[in-house]
Design the sequence.
């Protein structure tokens, strides 16, 4: 069986009309089923760009992104995305926001609403099906973003700094939710690729941390985090791992 994801010799360049900017330079890595991978690195190093390439939302200038051995397509419901700013539709209620991906899959309204209601329950928002995004706190909005991304039973969930707009307590709760979903064989997703600029968050959540450098964005290190789960953020081993990753960034 091919790896879940293969990123092969991927370059991304933008042309601002005057000069070419190399955003990603020769990126290579693989992801397996069940892996939780964190992408860390300074702002502007191309993490969001790479995540969009993984979901097929954008195309590499050179190289290829394969999902189960075939080029990733944007309409693949098994790879979905959670955005930093939630990206909810303000004119749709929670139920319809969560149903969006199912609508694109051609589900009948009754079926997609039933499925969305289950997901809304799973992310702890039961009772808010008919609320609009403006009526929700940031944490609740991101729960909607998560439910929407889970609605099509994705195998790979991509998350771009999903907690960075949330307060520390909400962040804490949502991290545990994501770990619970990832760890539950009966619930999606199987694999997670999460962008974060928070090293502790990466070490707390991920099996592997890929460290990016900037100008141009490139991989500096690809490190395994072998700490047993659930992880203890106060343990000396946790500090050691975090320190090790910090040193690779700086
Ligand atoms: P990160 O998520 O690591 O902060 P991004 O992937 O958002 O980085 O951006 C990496 C670089 O690519 C930045 O310098 C940004 O200005 C540039 N960039 C991103 N998208 C575009 C675009 N559509 N056109 C031109 N430049 C872009
Ligand atoms: Mg970004």
Sequence:
């Amino acid at each position: 069986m091919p790896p879940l994801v293969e990123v092969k010799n991927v370059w991304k360049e933008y042309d601002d009309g005057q000069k070419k900017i190399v955003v990603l330079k020769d990126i290579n890595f693989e992801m397996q089923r069940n892996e939780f991978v964190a992408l860390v690195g300074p702002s502007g190093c191309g993490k969001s760009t790479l995540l969009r390439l993984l979901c097929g939302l954008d195309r590499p200038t050179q190289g290829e992104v394969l999902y189960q051995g075939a080029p990733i397509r944007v309409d693949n419901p098994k790879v979905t995305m959670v955005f930093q700013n939630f990206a909810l539709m303000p004119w749709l209620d929670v139920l319809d926001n969560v149903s969006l991906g199912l609508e694109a899959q051609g589900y009948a309204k009754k079926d997609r609403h039933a499925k969305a209601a289950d997901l809304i329950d799973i992310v702890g928002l039961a009772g808010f099906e008919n609320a609009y995004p403006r009526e929700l706190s940031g944490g609740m909005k991101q729960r909607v973003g998560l439910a929407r991304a889970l609605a099509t039973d994705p195998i790979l969930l991509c998350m771009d700094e999903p907690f960075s707009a949330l307060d520390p307590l909400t962040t804490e709760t949502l991290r545990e939710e994501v770990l619970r979903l990832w760890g539950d064989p009966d619930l999606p997703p199987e694999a997670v690729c999460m962008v974060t600029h928070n090293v502790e968050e990466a070490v707390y959540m991920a099996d592997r941390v890929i460290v990016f450098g900037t100008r141009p964005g490139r991989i500096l290190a690809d490190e395994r985090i072998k700490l047993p789960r659930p992880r203890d953020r106060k343990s000396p081993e946790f500090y050691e791992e975090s320190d090790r990753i910090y040193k690779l960034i700086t």
Remarks:
- The first helix runs from residue 47 to 55.
- DSSP finds seven helices and ten strands in the chain.
- The domain at 5-78+190-249 is CATH 3.40.50.300 (Rossmann fold).
- Strands lie at 5-15, 20-31, 36-40, 62-67, 70-71, 79-82, 156-160, 191-195, 208-213, 218-224.
